[in-house]
Amino acid sequence: MIRVLHVVRSMNIGGLENIVKSILLSADRESVICDCLICDEKESDYEEELRTAGINVFKLSAPNKTKIKFYIDLYKFFRNQRQNYDIVHIHMAFTNGLIALAAKRSGVKYIISHSHGVMLPTKNAFIRKPYEVVMRKFMSKYSDGLLACSKSAGDYLFGCEAFREKGKVFLNGIDFLKFAFDENKRDVVRKKLGVEDKLVIGTIGALVPAKNHMQLLRILNEFKQEDNVVGVIIGSGPLKKTLVSYANDHDLRDRLLLLGKRLDVSAYLQAMDVFIFPSISEGFGIALLEAQANGLPCVVSSNIQDEAKIAKNIYTVENDAPLNEWKRAIQKAYNDGRNYYAHDLRESGLDLYSNCKKLFSWYKEFLQ
């Protein structure tokens, strides 16, 4: 039996967290046992579900600014738990390096660092650069295996040479049948939202700059002359006030539904007519996979990786293209309509549970 401890920043609703949750729940607990260490004392959205499933959930304080206390807490934790786990699998971006260092020095046998995306440069990127360089060295030195959702995500977090030597691509995936189109659910949700006779343009993702939700609002402004167009955004985050302010300033409040975090994302996908994904930066795009599984025509930015575009009804627009190009693409997508056989996309290699089985076989290989 292989015992694996997954280390995450939180288990709130989100793309990375959904992947980790699926890995945890897919383990059969006979040949592979997966438990979870959350580096935040606040209650996470998925904690109760994980505990109910018999998964051990440990908690540590979130990393502070200097991360000294965080490192000490990690070292003590791993020192106490090192006999209980064969592998520590880390999902915390550049903090992976510090966690890998603490785990290795406390005697953990095998460590995997996992990259889930490519981050946007921040205002303090110059200040962070030395930290990132050190963390890359730690990940390369103290991680026995490197995983990433794509080659670009692996090259970004670990460096090209390290990922080439130690890395594997673990494709993100979803349960395609869970997101299959359902006409009855569509009618119920559209009635609930009051959009029965509307063209609904929707998107899903944290309200952060990388997701570029403001583009949807700009596009809604382009549709101002058409009374039947509304926008739906599922997600929460620090940019909510900015979006609300823009909507108020441009008289879009009656055309925009900000629905916050939702556990029942598949139900709200049913209500949409076109899915828009204008991200500036994206690791792989779980929300885009979910939309494709639902059969939705998708209009995406040119920043989205080709690996995530598997359906035929996807329309790519340059992210800095004029808004009327986005508008035309949305109109074409709407006219072309849904792919009602989208659940057949399971053959794409992005079926989550098949990929989890592959990961568990990799665990065995790593330990040999």
TrEMBL record:
Domain Glycosyltransferase subfamily 4-like N-terminal: 13-175
Domain called Glycosyl transferase family: residue spans: 188-337
Keywords on record: Transferase
InterPro entries in UniProt: Glyco_trans_1, Glyco_trans_4-like_N, Glycosyltransferase_grp1
Pfam name, any one: Glycos_transf_1
GO molecular function, one term: glycosyltransferase activity
Keyword Aminoacyl-tRNA synthetase: no
Keyword match Coiled coil: no
Protein name: Glycosyltransferase involved in cell wall biosynthesis
The organism of origin for this protein: Allofournierella massiliensis
